[in-house]
Amino acid sequence: MSDRAGKPVVSSxxxxxxxxxxxxxxxxxxxxxxxxxxxxAHIAAQVAAVRAQGVEVGIVVGxxxxxxxxxxxxxxxxxxxxxxxxxxxxxxxGLALQDAVERTxxxxxxxxxxxxxxxxxxxxxxxxxxxxxxxxxxxxAAGTGNPHxxxxxxxxxxxxxxxxxxxxxxxxxxxxxxxxPQKNPKAKKIERLSYLDVLxxxxxxxxxxxxxMCMEHRLPIIVxxxxxxxNILKGVxxxxxxxxxxxxxxxxxxxx
Length: 256
Fold this sequence. Notes:
Elements: E1 17-22, H1 37-52, E2 56-61, H2 69-74, H3 79-102, E3 108-112, E4 121-122, H4 125-133, E5 137-141, H5 151-161, E6 166-171, E7 176-177, E8 189-190, E9 192-193, H6 195-200, H7 208-216, E10 221-225, H8 231-237, E11 243-245
Parallel strand pairs: 1-2, 1-6, 2-5, 3-4, 3-5, 6-10, 9-11
Antiparallel strand pairs: 7-8, 10-11
C-alpha cells in the first residue's frame, strides 16, 4: 500500500516491537572500509518510517566493516582480543547510525554492553525497555559484551530479553536460497523455513547459537534485502518479504 506521494503506508503493523539486525558491511555502501553516510541516511529513513507507525525499534549492529575478530584470530591474534576490538567497532557503527537516525528527528539511544559512559549508556535491560516504551529507538552495541559470541547471537539475545515479536535480519539478497544466487543462477528462493530446517541443512542464515535461541523462544526471523526501499516496513506490516523462519506445526496423528 502507498500514499499519494508513493510512500509505503502501514495502517496496522503486525508487530509492535521489533529487533533489526544490521551487519557492519550494510553500512559500507560502495566503500571498501568504514561507514558511508548516505547508506546510514537511507537506513535511518527506513527505520524512522517504521517508528512513525508506532512500532518500537531496537537495532543490533555488527562491526565487520571496520574489524573482524575471527579474521584477526586466523592471522595469529588472540581470539578474545580480536573479539573485543570487534565490539568496539560496533560501538563506532552505532554512533554513526545514531547520528543519522536523529537527523530524522527520531530520538535515539546507544546502549553498550561494554561500559563507556562518555559516549553510550550501559546496557540495562529494564532501561532499554523503558526507552522503547517512551518512543526512543535503541541501538544495542558491543555485542553481548563477551568474546566468542557473534552479533547474530547478540541480536537473538537482545530480542528475547526485550520482548521483541520478530527479528529482522538484513541481507544483501531477498531471502534464503538453496544456493548462493550470485554464483548459481538456478538457485531457488525459499519462502518459509523452520528453525530445524536451517540447522539441519546448515543454511548459514545465522550462527547455530542464534537460531537455537530463537527456536527456544519461538521468535520468528525474517531474512530480507535491506537495499530494497520499504522492505523493513513491509516486514513489520506482515506483507510477504524475504524468507520467514519460524516454528512449524507438527501434524497430529491420524491427520494429513
